[in-house]
Amino acid sequence: MDNSHIEDKLDEVQELFDKRPEEIETGLHVDGAEMLQLRKACRLLEAARHLKQENGYYTVVIEASFAAIERTIQFYLVDNNFLDPEEYVDHREVYERGSRAGLYSDEFKQKLIGLWRENRSRSYYREGVGSRKRADKMLELAEGVHSHVTQLAGKSHECICNTA
Question: How far is residue 97 CA from its own chain's centroid?
Answer without folding.
Answer: 16
